[in-house]
Specification:
By secondary structure, this protein is of the alpha+beta class. The protein folds into 2 domains: 231 residues; 139 residues, Jelly Rolls (Sandwich), CATH 2.60.120.200. It has 31 helices and 11 strands. Strands 2-3-4-11-6-9 form a 6-stranded antiparallel β-sheet. The chain has a 5-stranded antiparallel β-sheet with strand order 1-5-10-7-8. A hairpin with a 7-residue loop joins strand 2 and strand 3. Keywords: Plasmid.
Length: 466
Amino acid sequence: MDPISESIVAMEAVIDSDDIALPAVVESQIAMDAVSTSQTAMDAVSDSQTAMDAVSDSQTAMDAVSDSQTAMDAVSDSQTAMDAVSDSQTAMDAVSASAVAMEAVAASTIAMDAAIASEDIALPTIVETETAMNEVSLSDLALDSLWESDVAWGMIRDLSMAVGKFAVGRAGLSGYDYADIDDVASSQTAMDAVSTSETAMDAVSTSDTAMDAVSTSETAMDAVSASTLAMDAIWDSQLAWDTVAAVSMAVGKFVAARAGLEGSNYADIDAVASDQTAMDSVAGSQTAMDAVAASIMPRSAVFDSDYAVSSLWAASPGARTILEEGGSPTLPHTYDDSRSGSSGTHLRIEDGSDISLPGNATSALEIEVVDSDDPYRRGLTLELDLSNATTLEFEMRADSVPDSRIDHGVEVDGSTLFSNSGNSSWTNRSVDVSEYSGTHDVLFFTDTDSWTGGDWMTYFSNINLI
């Protein structure tokens, strides 16, 4: 077979004999060993649709081709050959299981384009095969090609093995060293590299599978919290942030780091909320407070802190960010009413410019009613976890209230827990919330009842859970 495989004339004759010679060659181990190691033979075979159809459908032929550097170099650089290989499950099983074959495929634009275009055979076979993804992780060309394909990335991001090897590849590491994304998330070496790589974090932050692993690994979150790049990537991805925000350990380290602290020094968000130094830092940091305001768990934790009044409400931006960004509606907000051109309810922040604030508070919720319509109850709703609280405490003030029918107070899930009518200076109020567990809508309101045509202001500050 060696003389034939080294002769272009002979190889063309074999290929032309597609009913006798060619089938015999592709099913012969001896013949295919000779063909696959011959540059002359493989050039002829890879350029022939007839030959490649026969080779790609033969287990014997593909075993020989996939183990030969010469053969795979020829195949991976031939559009004809790669089209045939990519459309054959037999061929792709052999190629994806061979490091030699996948090294050639991963280094070739022609090969990667053909594989990605074969969405039912080649692409899923590569993504689901460990050897294939190991070689992909070593090739920037392959990683870029897969990332740029929505279909390819959609397959990779949902598979623990694939996304793990992809992520470390993006970070300049070898997929051979990590079995899956859980292995990556538990490795300080891997996470130090991933968390400081923009391309790796772009991948991790857009994968549910990856973020589930990262957000539940203390090692991973310590690395993330030490990297501004990683935290920015998570913050900019709704998927990633939602995942982190739902895990006490993860969001605690994230919030602490956003405040300029060492995330590794805090076990979870409760540890942050129970530490006065941490609370002072968090309350004084806009980026930290943005994170706190954006999620129920940290929002509830800081209100439940022993330092809620002394740190959260006394600092700037502090609780103001929660009032502005963490409730419904987002402040400032105006409800327009039809009674007159000026009629409406205005929800905004009072920062002490117009009235004095209670204690050391730096902000308050202001509800201003102008030329009131009837009837309505309006205010700011904060979604809070009341599981660890027995008492909701707050300070309330009402100015220029024109009628005793007008109420101000707090309701939980539509049930009024406290209401008061008339004017009042800043007064500490508290309500029993011990019967509530889990997440609830807490509304701080003013209620017009049946009164129309009046103007007044209601204020709430120093909200905290005990």
